Amino acid sequence: MKNKENILWGILLILIGILFLGNNLDWWSINIFFDGWWTLFIILPSIRGLFDKEGYSWSIVTLILGILMLLACNNIIKWNVIWKILLPIMIIVIGVSLILGNNKKEKKVINKNAKDYVAVFSGIDEKIKAIVSDLRTIAIFGGIELDLSKSKIDKDIVINAVTIFGGIDIKIPDNVNIVINGLPIFGGVEKRSLASKDTKINIYLNYICIFGGIDIL
Question: pTM value?
Fold first, then answer.
């Protein structure tokens, strides 16, 4: 799944590879492993998440966590101070999210007869022409691409999506809105599809992203 997170990690890995290559060939001598360097894998995605409309509040929490861990690695603060600071901040952020979330549309519960798409260390690529039930998608170290763009949707549907180190792409028709509710943990949803203003049909997306991403196309 080609999204901004993939590009960010791709550029980071290319730079690390070039630095390793130069060190191994004696072109230069650069030590990239400063104390707490691994916290960048928390800080960088969190900074990226601040620009997403969905889940930016949790990006604030993870960014603060990454910065506190970096400071602890460099003996600027003690490790036991992290939870003393982070726990109250988490409570505050959750409270603010609940207040700001009051204007969101109601979260819909998925139907018991929902169709399942599960990709574990694998991939699924399917074009769906007719939707007869809600959808449940789970991608764990895998990818799922569902093309609903040619589907005739004449009533509201619910899609539950879970990604853990995986990605889900969902192409939706132009005549539907998408209502997003979920929990991003080092991941999130990127919405690129724009519905017409006069449509009254909704797709309700309930998601959990853990080191993963969902693209709405």
Answer: 0.58
